[in-house]
Design goal:
alpha/beta; Dihydrodipicolinate Reductase, domain 2; 6-stranded parallel beta sheet; binds 6-O-phosphono-beta-D-glucopyranose; G6P_DH_C
Length: 482
């Protein structure tokens, strides 16, 4: 069956930076079905011809590669523009007239803020464009708390069934995240050791060099925890800790993730200051460049919004009892870098001397981005003439670009769009996952209620406030060094 992809928010940042370049690349890989149309929806008064030339300019700006003439020729014929204000449900007739010229599956991508979702759904419902197998793809953030998230989900579910709703978390489309399933469940070497008997603790870091760019309004009402922890970090945490699903069906994978999300220990007003450290970047010099403070970036307004968070997490399951998980994420950190680090417990009685237990521990580092790969730190004997057992460590390395030759790590949005178009839900997030993660996130903000929640200032180009180090050092651990 043919399909049509409708993009609400045709000229928005997400469309220009991510969706259109990804669709163009899917064209290049010959993955778009022959008759598929792409219908940009927006308030601009453009004709389709004008829209086509705007898309061409935007692709030139945002794609890191040249536009090939023959590919563009095919791609541009797919493009249509529909001028409509999503707040006027009657306006959706214009869209219906374009769509109903033929019988196709309609995939609606909401590349707009969540406060518009309800009217888009209403408009689609009014025109009977919400029946199966039509579907919607929606972007985070789905709310700012459990309550607001439920409101959005309830509104959407008046018009679309859960199996028609594809919630994006773009980290789920990253190759290194997808590989976590293979790494954990195809390698007996790790499979049997993945619990509190062998693992001492884990660290997950998503660091960014950039500040808030031109998203000040969005970011100031959201902050780093709601923007990054509720979605990407909790997804990674649940995948790296979940039990083996019975198969690769999306519901079975999601069921396992749910068990972890349910077992996240909530915070309370007594422990919150020891377990959650919040920071906000000040002005300073980073890589020789002057950086303005967060407050300056949002227009010199007072704000308690955090641009950095490090959090100690406990998972109350029998597999993970006693294992701390440290999450860390922030803007204006020394570099763009994401990794998962797994620290193993030492051997109980070390025949080479117990001092080695403190000195060297096995460690697995999963480089999520950049330089995607996996490194395993192992302990070895130092080669010497005399028979001595002096030990040191060395690394076993797997690196995508070296080991797979000319490997292409497709952009997450390419993968997500492709699977969304195919109707495969396994890379998308289910409603209960979103709501459970909000329950836990709410426990952070509720625990701060009535107490001081002002983030601590940190200089750009550092790893956040010093208290982030103290938090982990208190347990006898330290952040992995890059
Ligand atoms: C988005 C957040 O979901 O992820 C942004 O809203 C953040 O604030 C971005 O910059 C990071 O994504 P990536 O893929 O560049 O790590």
């Amino acid at each position: 069956m043919t399909c049509d992809l409708v993009i609400f928010g045709a000229k928005g940042d997400l469309s220009c930076r991510k969706l259109l370049p990804s669709l163009y690349k899917l064209e290049e890989s010959n993955k778009l079905s022959k008759n598929m149309r792409i219908i940009g929806v927006g308030r601009a008064n453009w004709s389709t011809t004008e829209y086509i030339s705007i898309v061409q300019k935007s692709l030139k700006r945002f794609m890191k590669k040249k536009i090939e003439e023959d590919i563009w020729k095919i791609f541009s014929t797919r493009l249509n523009f529909c001028n409509l204000d999503v707040n006027e449900t009657d306006n959706f007739l214009k869209l219906k007239n374009i769509l109903c010229r033929r019988n196709s599956v309609i995939i609606n991508y909401f590349a707009m803020p969540p406060n518009t979702f309800s009217s888009i759904c209403k408009g689609l419902g009014k025109m009977n464009l919400n029946f199966e197998p039509n579907r919607i793809i929606i972007e985070k953030p789905l709310g700012l708390s459990l309550e607001t998230s439920k409101e959005i989900n309830n509104e959407i579910s008046k018009y679309f069934k859960e199996n028609q709703i594809f919630r994006i978390d773009h980290y789920l489309g990253k190759e290194t995240i997808l590989n976590l399933l293979a790494f954990r469940f195809a390698n007996s070497l790790f499979y049997y050791n993945w619990n509190n008997k062998f693992i001492d603790h884990m660290q997950i870091t998503i660091a960014e060099e950039i500040g808030i760019e031109d998203r000040k309004k969005y970011f100031n009402s959201t902050g780093q925890i709601r923007d990054m922890v509720q979605s990407h970090l909790l997804q990674i945490l649940s995948i790296i800790t979940m039990s083996k699903p019975i198969d690769l069906c999306s519901d079975n994978i999601q069921d396992e993730k749910i068990k972890i999300l349910k077992a996240l220990r909530p915070f309370n007003s007594v422990n919150i200051h020891k377990k959650v450290i919040l920071g906000q970047y000040s002005s300073g010099i980073m890589k020789g460049k002057k950086i303005s403070s967060y407050l300056k970036d949002i227009g010199d307004e007072p704000s308690n919004t955090e641009t950095f968070a490090s959090i100690k997490v406990n998972i109350d399951t029998k597999e993970w009892k006693g294992v701390p998980f440290y999450l860390r994420t922030g803007k204006r950190l020394p570099k763009k870098y994401s990794e998962i680090v797994i620290f193993f417990k030492p051997i109980p009685i070390n025949i080479f001397g117990n001092h080695y237990n403190n000195l060297y521990k096995n460690k697995i580092t999963i480089f999520l981005q950049p330089n995607e790969g996996i490194q395993i730190k192992i302990i070895n004997k130092i080669p010497e003439l005399e028979l001595k057992y002096n030990l040191t460590t060395a690394n076993l390395n797997f690196n995508y670009s070296k080991d797979f030759g000319k490997v292409i790590l497709f952009d997450a949005y390419e993968k997500l769009l492709l699977e969304g178009i195919k109707g495969n839900r396994s890379l998308f997030v289910r409603r209960d996952e979103v709501e459970l993660s909000w329950i836990w996130i709410d426990s952070i903000f509720n625990s701060f209620k009535g107490r001081k929640m002002s983030p601590i200032l940190y200089s750009p180009g550092t790893w956040g406030p010093e208290l982030s180090n103290s938090m982990i050092n208190y347990d006898g651990n330290k952040w992995n060094e890059f």
